[in-house]
What does this fold into?
Amino acid sequence: MVKCPLPSWCQVNNLPNLLYFVGAHVIVGCKNEDKMTEELELMKSLSKTKLDVIVKHLDLASFKSIREFAEKINSGMD
It folds into this structure.
């Protein structure tokens, strides 16, 4: 069995991170943008390729937040 060379936080159980490392365009919705931005900087420092990740606020407990997030995504991230 081959051991995954990626850090444990970037394995298959964390799909956005895995997609990020293979060069996919990833949109991350999160409640705490500051914390996610810190994680994103860590991921960028570990990657050898230019990665395309957008971080936007999303609170799944708020229908207003969900609608605003969806509108941003559908409008092309203005």
Remarks:
- Strands lie at 25-30, 52-57.
